[in-house]
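FORM 7B: Structural annotation worksheet

SECTION A. Query
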Amino acid sequence: MLKQRTGRAVNIRESLDTDKESIRQLHRNAFGETEGDAVSKLAVDLLEDRTALPLLSLVAEADDEIVGNVIFSSVTIEGADPAASAYTMAPLAVASRFQGQGLGTKLIKLGLETLKARGAAIVLVLGDPNYYSRTGFQAGHSLKPPHALRYPEAWMALELVEGALENTRGTVRCAASLSAPEYW
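SECTION B. Predicted structure
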């Protein structure tokens, strides 16, 4: 149980099928009018996408309300050893009244710990380098994204197993629901 500045206790757990509508609403509200519909659709599509398995979805709850969510879906790396277990992290959302309090970072760190315990070697993310570098993600690796990127410095990786990035090269292939070029 975490205590936020709002004074509310926050519990982080794996999401359930019954959480899908709350997850949709959280992402829609967190991303606003411009991106909210697309990101909320992506979140729910990933939860239902068999090509995303194995998948880890964590939710943060305060007073029986979902106020945070992060999804890690498995990926394959073309040209790499099939035993290299890799995931991509997307999307991540925190309710506006809980932003700036470290909840997103806590969701990410717990997700990384859980994936490491389950044998994952690499986690990838496409996002703000200033934010994601705080949890250990770095650019400058040898894994190619599924599509050309407008901001290649935002394509970052983190190794959960020492030497995993140094020894892995290839093109990342995501779950079907995350493979659309507009997400990249």
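SECTION C. Observations
The mean pLDDT is 93. The chain has one domain: 2-183.

SECTION D. Sign-off
Analyst initials: ____
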